[in-house]
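Hi R.,

As promised, here are both runs. First protein below:
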Amino acid sequence: MVLLEVFNVKKAYNNKIYFALYVAILMIVSALLLKYLFLYIYGGDVTHNYFLLLVWVGIFMAIIPKLFIEAEEVCPINWHPIQKKWVEGCTFIERHKDILFIFVILSILITIFFFTICYFNVFGSNFGAPQKQEIEKIKEIATSLSGYAKSDIGGGFWDKFSIIFAQNTKISILFFLLSVLEMFGALFLLSWNASVFGVWLSEIAKQASQQTNNIILILSTSATSFLGILPHAIFEFSGFFLAAIAGGILAIGIHLYKDNALLLQIKDSILVLLAGLVCILIGAIIEAL
């Protein structure tokens, strides 16, 4: 695709607005092409949103690994002739914060796009069905968890916390392993979670639109629902982001470094993963309260 060929890695890494606009344009173009393909060639709506997610993740795969490599070029691990050891060119936070912002931007874009597509039925009313099924499963789990008596210290908070923490920890480890072995899997999981979030917000907005035509009230209702889950969701999503980034750091390190330099990269990967698990821990505590 011509748009991918003109992608400026250095500019995208240093200018997040450029990155967000560039990726948004790619997502819009690919979505319109997919709609055209289904409508005029297959004669129907885009009923299977996995097609769109796979196209978008394919685009991300052409971009994200380059940004990981750019991060290593900006803050490389170099041999220090005086100290006679491998040292990192930047602080831990400086080396990895930009990649975290990039993952956050991708998730926000996917959430916005799925919200828009589903709310306005751009691809037909059946689009988003898998996400809706996932939302129902989440509701069932939430309902079962709410059955624990809060007054029961032994069986209330700790049971809820252990279930939530164990489940989200498993997901985080999966993000990490997929990112190490194959970045595509981690990007797909991140995209899937963001798409579920976008569909959920669109369903809330649709329900609000049945009560009023005031767009401000509709958006405020959606925003209120979003703020309701924000305290724990922000930690959970951060945990998933960090786990995926930790895997990417390790994968790029294996590709670029060896010996003691690789050990430094492994250390960074472990620290980022642990930071992600701390976020998962905090999110589980908040959600279980």
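And here is the second one, sequence first, then its structure tokens:
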Amino acid sequence: MKERYFLSFLLIFLISLGLDNALAFTKNSRERMIDLTLNELQRKQRAFQDAFMEAQLFLEEEKPLPEIKEGELWKKILANLNYYIDYSLEYNDNIYLFKDKTSDIIHRIFPGLRTNLRDPKLNLNFDFSFGTNVYSRYSRHTGYESNFDFNLNRSLGYYNFMFHNSFETTKLAPVRFGVTQEEFPRYLNDFFHLRLSRAFNRLNFNLGYWQSYWDYESEYGSRNDNIQYNFYLGGDFRIAPKTFFLTETQWGFTRYRNRAYSNRDSDSHEFNFGLKGLLTHKLTGIVKLGYRYQDYKTFSDYKDAVLSGALDYQFSKLTQFNFNFERTTHESTYREQDYYINHEFSLSMVHRWAFNPRIYTKLNFDFSYQDFPKRFGISRHDQLWGESFGLGYKMHRWFTFEFSYAHKERESNVDYDYTNNIFIFRTYVLF
């Protein structure tokens, strides 16, 4: 009798266990089907978002034209000519860059004209703007500025020809001259660059010339007006499909236009070597290391290493980093100094948001250490820091607006310290 009860109980237990397993199997199968369906939907959603993002990025990029036929160049230039208005509203808490701050609100209005023309053998860029800076509190500083930039790059078989010309008329803060007057001296800078290249299989030769013309207004001009000439000869050897080893030698001459200050004239000779092109899978740019000898007529000569570079790192389709650095000499506009050795680097990032690549974020950090040669028993050293942040939205190819903030600071062992905060709202409309 007991055995019969035991067998009945065992049979009921086994039947219930089988039903539970069957229900569990059915439930797991349903959950697995739901999970598979959700994963497939999420995969399709990500694919759709990626396709949407790539479509928007494609719309933002300017594509090269087919090769321009002979006699159609001017027609294409006029067809690609655009007018624009660049307007910004700026709050600047230290317009003179003095230790004691003076703030103002500035309206900057710059209409302009530009064109960008590219085909497999031609790259032509032109940009001209002429506008005004309107100061709200200190209206005496209201004035015009102009900017012009023209660049032509033309391939002619084994030869490549480059011509670049730019000029600007703008103002400098008085602290740049070491004076305390509350005024903005105006200056004009005209830059001219010409280069001819010849390709021989894996070897390219470059021959070039550039000059920079500086013209300062008012009493500052008599001491700082100068012309800088530079001739260079270089060669590039291809060590990989898109990577080159380069060598370059330069001869430079700086002449001050007022011969009463001819003691500031100098001659220089510089030799560089380095790499350029595609440096890694995502890194492109140029890096140069060399030696510079600058012979000043009456001041201590510069005989030391120089370094420069400009690198672009494509972190992703949406994020790009730029890194620039330099170590070389520059002419000084300060009354007490004639030149300085500049050690500078900057790091910037542009990130476009995944859910809408028309929205972008910009970050920038830069640092400069300026070493002025000892004069009158004083060795001057300046440290300049800068940080900025921007958030923009490119609603269409023809309309962009942006908010940005910038902080600048200088620490010097002489009396030129300052801090500066700038808030800007900017709009750009292209017609």
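A quick note on the second one: Residues 1-61 form one domain. Let me know what you think.

Best,
J.
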